[in-house]
Amino acid sequence: MSVNLKPLGSRVVVEPIEQEEVTAGGIVLPETAKEKPQKGVILSVGPGDRDEDGKRIPMDVKEGDTVLFAKYAGTEIKVEGKKLLILRESDLLAIVETK
Amino acid sequence: MSVNLKPLGSRVVVEPIEQEEVTAGGIVLPETAKEKPQKGVILSVGPGDRDEDGKRIPMDVKEGDTVLFAKYAGTEIKVEGKKLLILRESDLLAIVETK
Amino acid sequence: MSVNLKPLGSRVVVEPIEQEEVTAGGIVLPETAKEKPQKGVILSVGPGDRDEDGKRIPMDVKEGDTVLFAKYAGTEIKVEGKKLLILRESDLLAIVETK
Amino acid sequence: MSVNLKPLGSRVVVEPIEQEEVTAGGIVLPETAKEKPQKGVILSVGPGDRDEDGKRIPMDVKEGDTVLFAKYAGTEIKVEGKKLLILRESDLLAIVETK
Amino acid sequence: MSVNLKPLGSRVVVEPIEQEEVTAGGIVLPETAKEKPQKGVILSVGPGDRDEDGKRIPMDVKEGDTVLFAKYAGTEIKVEGKKLLILRESDLLAIVETK
Amino acid sequence: MSVNLKPLGSRVVVEPIEQEEVTAGGIVLPETAKEKPQKGVILSVGPGDRDEDGKRIPMDVKEGDTVLFAKYAGTEIKVEGKKLLILRESDLLAIVETK
Amino acid sequence: MSVNLKPLGSRVVVEPIEQEEVTAGGIVLPETAKEKPQKGVILSVGPGDRDEDGKRIPMDVKEGDTVLFAKYAGTEIKVEGKKLLILRESDLLAIVETK
User: Fold this and answer.
1) Mostly located where (chains A, B, C, D, E, F, G) (predicted)?
2) Which CATH architecture describes the domain G11-17+32-95?
3) CA-based, 20 to 30 A from F94: which of D99, F10, F44, G33?
4) CB-based contact, A74 to chain B, within 8 Å
């Protein structure tokens, strides 16, 4: 039996990627008080919010995108042992492309 | 005599599903400060909010859907001994499908 | 001489129904921190708010409906010895139908 | 010389009616924490607010109406010894009709 | 050399009229906690705010009007020794007409 | 090498004019708790914000205008030794014309 | 392997330019309590937010622009050792042109 999460509105389900706090050769120290984002992969994407006429606003991200998001955004859920996050698209900061 | 609840606007009536805090073989400890959602089944669905022209915005969930919602969202009501919740659709995070 | 209250905008006049805190055979203890709603009967209904073009948005409740509303919503008024409440329709949670 | 007040926007000028806190035969004690409204008569009515296209939204109350309003709403002014209130129409709760 | 102030948006320039706190024969004591308004004469009127399509919303007051406004509203400026106030039209409560 | 600042949206770049706190013959004492505005000259003007359809809303001030603005509004920047301010047009109170 | 950041909505990726706090010949002391902005170069620009009809609102800045922004705005990210910022266009104050 497998579980499928269909996010509502402009929400996405994201699997966070743990980032090493310690880089090769040294310790990363926070240099500023600014919020640092977290990285993750999008597992599923909602249908989008509705505009004032009830029409769907298309989503700008898709399944499989690697994204950055604010560290404390969203709601955490554990599905089959995996820690996932449900976030609104507006909480996503950028898509990360690796070439 | 049976009681029927017709939620108003974009509200839904949800019967929460109690989730075991303790999983097989161990204790689940909260790993982060993030809010954890709760699961429930939708018993009835309101007609939807009205847009700026007074037309109904269709609802994205239906009776019988299993949904996730923030743990402290909504208003609790006891109907014939059952603890139910009245929530706005915007407080619902995702539909859970089990295959 | 009788008094008639015509609520303005999307307001309704509600006569609250006192609910027994104690059920047959025992004491109901609050199990959660969630807000519990109150029940009442609608005595009169306002004409509805106006949309951005000045047209009335129709009301979803009518005189005689039994409704649930948040316990501390609205403004209390005493008319001919009866304790009534003036509430906005958006403060109403659901219509209760008994069959 | 007499003074005439022309309220602006959706404002009204109201002359409050003092209500006896003490009823015949006893003292009224506040039973709940809910806000109690005050009664008054409308002396003059503004032209109404403008909608997004600059057109006037008609007022729902008129000169001479007896209305209920929240006790601490509005701005007090003393005109020729009389204590009057300038209120927005949205602060009015209901029209009181006595038959 | 004379100074001319052209208020921007829906702002007006008002010269406040000092009101005697003490009336003939006695001292006026504040009877309630409600805010008391101040009187003034409009010296100049802005072009009005723009609606959502960029068109001007006409102003409801004109140069020379005597108006009431909340005591602590606006920004004070001293022009050629005179204490003036720059207020938004929405801070004006009513026009005072004396016949 | 000279620096040119092109403000974004409805922002303007203003060079503040220092005003003497002390007038001829005496000391100006603050008489009220009201905010006092500051004077400045507009050095450059942004293209204007966009309305809901993406069209520019024209600016009401132009390069060279002497304007009043709230004392603590805006962001300060030092360009070639000169202290300048970047303000939104909505923070400007009035244009000062001297004849 | 190189990383490419595609900002979402009206966001931009900015590489901050460190500014010397100490100028030639002396120490710059903060003269006012006003917020001082920071300078940076835009590395990439999002597609723009959507208006109420779902259409893109064009961006006013482009890759390569030198911009000013509030010192504590945005989210910091480290990409290949470089400290970058993800900001909304509305947090940008002005474009700096050097001639």
Assistant:
1) cytoplasm
2) Roll (2.30)
3) G33
4) yes
- Cα–Cα distance for residue pair A48/B59, rounded to 1 Å: 13
Pick the CATH number of B11-17+31-95 from 1.10.357.10, 2.30.33.40, 3.40.50.300, 3.90.1170.40: 2.30.33.40
E1-47 pLDDT per residue, tens: 577 899 999 999 999 997 654 444 444 444 444 556 789 999 999 99
Does the CB of B95 have a partner CB in chain A at under 8 Å?
yes
Tell me if ipTM is over 0.95: no
Secondary-structure class of domain A1-18+34-61+74-90 per CATH: mainly beta
> How far is residue A13's CA from residue A87's CA, in Å, rounded to a whole number?
6
Superfamily grouping for domain C1-17+34-99: GroES chaperonin (2.30.33.40)
Question: Is any Cβ of chain B less than 8 angstroms from the Cβ of A90?
Answer: no
Going by the DSSP 8-state scheme, the letter that residue E52 receives in this structure is: T
Cβ distance F76 to G51 less than 8 Å, yes or no, reads: no
Confidence check: pLDDT of B8 > 90:
yes
Kindly state the average pLDDT of the residues D6-15. 95
Most confident range (mean pLDDT) of D35-39, E82-86, F22-26 is E82-86
CB atoms A76 and B36 under 8 Å: yes
Q: Which residues of E touch F31 (CB under 8 A)?
A: 83
Q: Do D37 and C75 touch (CB under 8 A)?
A: yes
Asked if B18 is an interface residue toward chain C (Cβ–Cβ < 8 A), one would say: no
Cα–Cα distance for residue pair D38/D61, rounded to 1 Å: 16
Tell me the C-alpha to C-alpha distance, in Å, between residue A53 and each of A11, A49, A50, B19, C55: 20, 11, 7, 38, 17
| Nearest by CB: F1 against G90, G93, G98 | G98
Q: Architecture of domain D11-17+33-95 in CATH?
A: Roll (2.30)
Q: What is the pLDDT of residues B25-58, one digit of tens each?
A: 444 444 444 556 799 999 999 999 988 778 899 9
CA distance A6 to A48: 12
Cβ neighbours of D76 in E, within 8 Å: 32, 34-37
Flag whether pLDDT at D59 surpasses 90: yes
If you measure CA to CA, which chain B residue comes closest to C92?
B8
- Chains B and E contact (Cβ–Cβ under 8 Å for 3 or more pairs): no
Express each pLDDT in B69-96 by its tens digit: 988 788 988 888 888 999 999 999 999 9
State the average pLDDT over residues G3-13.
93
Closest-CA distance of chain G to residue F29, Å: 21
Burial level of F22, CB count in 10 A (0-12/13-18/19+)? exposed
